[in-house]
Amino acid sequence: MSRSGCHQTERGELRIYESSDEVATELADYIAELSEVSVKERGFFAIALSGGSLISLMGKLCEAPYNKTVDWSKWYIFWADERVVSKNHADSNYKLAKDCLLSKVPLIPSHVYSINDSLSAEEAAGEYEFVLRQLVKVRTVGVSEISDCPKFDLILLGMGSDGHVASLFPNHMVLEEKDEWVTFITDSPEPPPERLTFTLPVINSASNVAIVVTGSSKAETLHLAIDDVGRDCSKLPARMVNPGNGNLVWFLDKLAASKLEAFKCTEK
Ligand SMILES: O=C(O)[C@H](O)[C@@H](O)[C@H](O)[C@H](O)COP(=O)(O)O
């Protein structure tokens, strides 16, 4: 029996693939499908991106058939986290997404909501939240039924080997933030130190959250984020992603999934 495949667990749906190439293809299918459903149902597709390897995997969306079949004019693009650097800096998540995807598909430029890079971290977080509040009022971004938070059609996250998602790092006090939608940190354990990030209430109010993880260096942390390991991992950021009224899907390659119960038990 192939150890790849889908597994429904209490921590969401696990989709495990042979290679990161396969992850990229399936991820593109999944995003294109959600875009079609959201545009049909709401007239918009509000998607939030992160940084890291997930963005190059999304590059498949520039290729056929997606470049022609996706209704790019209905996409509204946001960032679940951003580094406080200028937009043309190598560390900018906006630049990464622009180079890998956004500049290669026919998006409407005014639908791309990048973070203001001329402000301090605190000011930029406040401004981004203000912008989101306006878009929620007019329902370009949906509104959650369970909180006063925005309800993104899709939030895409990667996971660091320490278990961070977006710029929510283990043991950081922003994990406790309940009121703000967008917050900032100035002491990121990974450079650059200043970052903006969606808070957990916003991530957990989305209709769909996908966490994309590849490579063996993430296997042990992924095991802690997904399996019951007999010790308290409830404060691991990746384990705190739990969209109450939405769907959580993990896109994994075999290397990242190698220590998961769901993966190992198909061997027996
Ligand atoms: O801006 C960031 O740093 C990211 O949003 C961050 O959360 C990233 O997604 C993970 O660190 C995984 O990155 P990799 O997949 O490249 O390891």
UniProtKB/TrEMBL annotation:
Keyword terms: Hydrolase
GO cellular component terms given for this protein: cytoplasm
Single GO biological process annotation from the record: pentose-phosphate shunt
Pathway listed: Carbohydrate degradation; pentose phosphate pathway; D-ribulose 5-phosphate from D-glucose 6-phosphate (oxidative stage): step 2/3
Ranges for domain Glucosamine/galactosamine-6-phosphate isomerase: 19-250
Enzyme Commission code: 3.1.1.31
Gene3D superfamilies in UniProt: 3.40.50.1360
CDD domains: 6PGL
Catalysed reactions, as listed in the record: 6-phospho-D-glucono-1,5-lactone + H2O = 6-phospho-D-gluconate + H(+)
Annotated GO MF terms: 6-phosphogluconolactonase activity
Top-level class of the enzyme under EC nomenclature: hydrolase
Top-level taxonomic group: Eukaryota
InterPro entries in UniProt: 6-phosphogluconolactonase_DevB, 6PGL, Glc/Gal-6P_isomerase, NagB/RpiA_transferase-like
Keyword Lyase found: no
Entry similarity comment: Belongs to the glucosamine/galactosamine-6-phosphate isomerase family. 6-phosphogluconolactonase subfamily.
PANTHER family: 6-PHOSPHOGLUCONOLACTONASE (PTHR11054), 6-PHOSPHOGLUCONOLACTONASE 1-RELATED (PTHR11054:SF17)
Name recorded for this polypeptide: Probable 6-phosphogluconolactonase
Source organism phylogeny: Eukaryota, Viridiplantae, Streptophyta, Embryophyta, Tracheophyta
